[in-house]
Design a protein that fits this description.
Layout (H helix, E strand, L loop, with lengths): L1 H7 L10 H14 L5 H21 L2 H19 L2 H21 L11 H13 L2 H9 L14 H7 L15 H12 L20 H34 L7 H7 L5 H25 L16
Protein name: Oligosaccharide repeat unit polymerase
Organism: Paenibacillus auburnensis
Keywords: Membrane, Transmembrane, Transmembrane helix
């Protein structure tokens, strides 16, 4: 717990801890593509263990799940079998539930059985209805009661990696605003005197983020931004095959994560895979003998 607290002080700069996940995914891709050399197997195990250690001490189930999920997505890209996705979904739900029972700080002392943990994952982690409802109920056309300074959450995302000592106007994340509002109006046990005292957040969807930042018009802004991002990501996947392990997932998560969370969790993975994929293109070293990159749109 002490180590987790220390890691939390890194804030968004904890992004560097996600690079082992990107490298481990790369070596899993090499294995799936048929490269069975000992060095590749060794590096796959080594970087997967590094990613596992980081995930465990960061206390993030998402990081832990991605060690397994990203290679599975690439495997699905290669095999095109729906059964892989179905089995993976149920397997990851069970894994998340077991983690919640034994390791998740907020639930490991509750004595949950597996069925209660599964229900908690489905209703608490996958269900975003209550945050949508809170966002809409407190919204006006161009503003929202949850966030007194419109667009503050988006501004924080744009300035994420610039220290507050340099840009003291950067504000706070949308999740922080949401927790602050809920603590002062709904769940009083969450209440704090200042936004600066909040060191945790509620996972919000991209649509909720848009509505909280800019009212109903924020939903339109989110839709436009998502459209441009999907176009960019489709182009990237057409150029870099290895991104089929993560870009489809990021596309899906636009409906379930804020832009801030996507940047902090997935950007280092994407950058790592692009660099390594580009290196393999230059070297002409596709293990399976492939010379071209095919768009995943023909699935």
């Amino acid at each position: 717990m002490v180590l987790r607290i220390q890691l939390s002080t890194l804030g968004p700069f904890a992004i560097v801890l996600m690079f082992p996940l990107g490298v481990s995914t790369y070596y899993w891709i090499r294995l799936i593509d048929g490269d069975r050399k000992f060095a590749v197997k060794f590096k796959t195990i080594l970087f997967s263990l590094m990613a596992f250690v980081v995930a465990f001490f960061r206390g993030q189930r998402t990081d832990l799940i991605l060690i397994i999920l990203l290679p599975l997505l690439y495997y699905f890209y290669k095999k095109r079998k729906i059964s892989i996705l179905v089995l993976s979904f149920f397997g990851l739900i069970i894994l998340s539930s077991v983690y919640a029972i034994f390791f998740k700080v907020t639930t490991n002392s509750l004595g949950l059985n597996i069925s209660e943990a599964v229900k908690g994952v489905l209703s608490g982690d996958l269900d975003r209805n209550w945050t949508y409802w809170m966002s809409v109920v407190n919204s006006n056309f161009v503003s929202n009661n949850i966030m007194s300074e419109s667009f503050s959450g988006y501004l924080y995302t744009l300035l994420t990696f610039i220290p507050r000592s340099i840009v003291d106007f950067k504000g706070y994340s949308t999740e922080t605003w949401f927790v602050y509002f809920m603590g002062n109006n709904v769940f009083y046990e969450w209440g704090v005197a200042s936004l600066a005292n909040i060191n945790w957040g509620i996972t919000l969807s991209g649509l909720s983020e848009g509505i909280i930042n800019a009212g109903y018009i924020g939903g339109v802004i989110f839709s436009i931004l998502s459209g441009y991002l999907l176009r960019i990501m489709d182009t990237m996947v057409a150029k870099y095959k290895y991104l089929t392990s993560c870009i489809p997932l990021i596309s899906l998560l636009l409906s379930g994560y804020t832009f801030y969370n996507i940047i902090v969790i997935y950007l280092p993975v994407v950058l790592t895979l692009v660099v390594l994929n580009k290196r393999d293109i230059i070297k002409g070293s596709y293990p399976s003998g492939e010379k071209s990159i095919n768009n995943y749109g023909d699935i």
